[in-house]
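== Sequence entry ==
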Amino acid sequence: MIKSILVINGLVKKGGNTDFLLRQFLNCGDFQIKEIVLRDAKITHCTNCEYCLKHNGKCCFDDDMKVIFDYSNSCDYLAIASPIVFGNTSGYISNAVSRFQSAYRYSNSSSLPKVGKPKKAVIILTGGGSGGKSAMAEKTTRLFAKMLNAKSIEFITSYNTDKIESKDDAAAMDKINIMQKEWINT
């Protein structure tokens, strides 16, 4: 049976460092890939209207976020990719994360809501200059992955892209090779 990957792509620039690492990673075998490019998706940010509280957790917006929720129910793996922008993920990732407010509010719990079946996840982050390594971007993407029911989360990072492009980042490329082998063999 072919395994499936849900890719949530928060790239800002096609062909940039984040896109390069993601493409390298996805070139790892025979997987069914469903990629949501958030830049092109129609996803409205949470407006805190509280519609979800009156409608069993259902959000008032009927948009592409439904595709993420639906595919998360069946995928085996999750990949989230984002450049670091002003110390955090791209606005596209932040916007999508905000939509879990309905699940969180409706759950009436201090624990995180979980969407979909348990899965492994890889998070790809790139950044350079003073916007390089970012604990906030790592925390945001880890939270996103956990809400999509990731049980195992690994990071592939390239944090010096102002000095060295991701394609020349040996540590990032080595991590891609390790993760590819792990996913192919599970």
About this structure: The helical segments are 17-26, 51-54, 65-72, 91-98, 101-107, 135-147, 170-184. The two ends are 12 Å apart (CA to CA).
